[in-house]
Design goal:
Length: 189
């Protein structure tokens, strides 16, 4: 740690960076009330993380205030027009018209769609609906151990969809689809 006249700078060890603390920290000195040096920085930092749901909500609010087709949010170009239209769309009327069987699956670590929305879907869809919230699953249906993270998507997208989802879909299809009149055995293809 370095303390200068205008800032307190903390440099992290490789182990601290690997534990997803990512980089050092520079804080204006005027914002520092006190400093405590601890032996176990990782232990002290446990439980301290950005509230990602609040961050996503804040980004949605920033996008809603834009008037351009494209905006920069957190340094990333975003299709702001599409996002505004998406955020403003209420799917309730669309869901109320679905009479076909529905399987709705999400993970409890979905940061883009509130898993509690499945309850509302089940209330709105007049046809048969089966809903599942799978533990440790992200929005992209990949296993995500640890705290929810949007940054993990880049790595997760290279992995196969979680086997629990595959098994769930196969089982649902087997229960939902009518059996073929003249089943063809794969060996006869």
């Amino acid at each position: 740690m370095t303390v200068t006249a205008d800032a307190v700078e903390v440099r992290l060890t490789a182990a601290e960076k690997a534990a997803a603390l990512r980089a050092g920290l520079r804080v204006p000195r005027s914002a520092v009330r006190s400093v405590e040096i601890v032996d176990d920085a990782l232990g002290a930092a446990r439980g301290v993380r950005t509230d990602l749901v609040a961050k996503v909500t804040k980004n949605h609010e920033r996008i809603r205030r834009t008037t351009t087709d494209v905006a920069r949010i957190g340094g990333v170009r975003v299709n702001a027009r599409w996002t505004r239209e998406f955020l403003d769309h209420d799917p309730a009327a669309d869901l109320a018209r679905i009479h076909a069987p529905v399987l709705a699956v999400t993970g409890d670590k979905d940061l883009q769609v509130n898993p509690e929305d499945l309850v509302r879907m089940a209330e709105l869809v007049p046809g048969p609906i089966e809903t599942h919230v799978i533990p440790d699953l992200s929005h992209i249906l990949r296993r995500q151990p640890g705290p929810p993270s949007l940054r993990a998507y880049r790595r997760e997208v290279r992995e196969p969809i979680d086997a629990r989802v595959t098994e769930l879909v196969i089982g649902w299809l087997a229960r939902t689809l009518p059996a073929p009149a003249n089943p063809v055995h794969p060996a006869n293809l």
